[in-house]
Amino acid sequence: MAAIDQAVAAELLSRPVSTENETLCRLVPALGRSLARDGFGDDLYDTLHEVVSDQSAPSDNGLPARLARLALPVARRRPKPRNTAAPPPADIARIVDRFGRATKQLLYVVPHRITPYPVREVQLLLDLRDERPDPAQTVVHLRRWALAIMTILDLMGDDP
């Protein structure tokens, strides 16, 4: 971001502004392409990771690697069940808000970044945005929504 002084800002603000429909029709696609190039913020990727990853997985502190170096057998672990407990309501509201904003931005950006238009993926994204799951199904719903967002990001070439 560049800093400008007051003289430059005053000059920019004093320029005439067009309200002609023809000018605005030329600017809207350019602004859409600019938005498509800007990408998404790190907060979306952090939220996706938070929802998709298993937050309850314990850390092994490198114990299996240390045991292997000493030629000791490594005990097999049973896979831990995924944490399906619903997060606090404040976290759910934050995640739903972030995914809602991401969905809105994706709907605007996808036509500029993906050819051919991914009809099924966008329809799934819209269905998940409009769905209101039971409280018991909240975690599953958020994971499905996160995976739908990640699918479209993959099609765009933005890897989280």
Short description:
The protein has 160 residues and is mainly alpha-helical. It contains 7 helices and no strands.
Give start-end ranges of low-pLDDT stretches: none
Query: Strand content of the residues, in percent?
Result: under 5%
Number of helices: 7
Distance between the termini: 24 Å
Largest β sheet strand count, sense and barrel closure: none
Structural class: mainly alpha
Chain-averaged pLDDT: 77
Helix content range: 55-70%
Roughly how many Å is the radius of gyration? 23 Å
Instruction: Write down how many β-strands occur, each being a DSSP E stretch of 2 or more residues.
Output: 0
Order of helices and strands: HHHHHHH
Supply the key terms:
62% helix, 0% strand, mainly alpha, 160 residues, single chain
Description:
With 160 residues, the protein is an all-alpha fold. The protein has a domain at 40-52 and 85-160. Helices cover 62% and strands 0% of the residues. It has helices spanning 6-13, 21-38, 42-52, 63-69, 89-113, 119-130, 138-156. Helix 5 (89-113) runs antiparallel to helix 6 (119-130) and helix 6 runs antiparallel to helix 7. The longest helix is centred in the middle third of the chain and has 25 residues, at 89-113.
What's the arrangement of secondary structure elements?
Blueprint: H1 6-13, H2 21-38, H3 42-52, H4 63-69, H5 89-113, H6 119-130, H7 138-156
Helix pairs in contact: 2-5, 3-5, 5-6, 5-7, 6-7
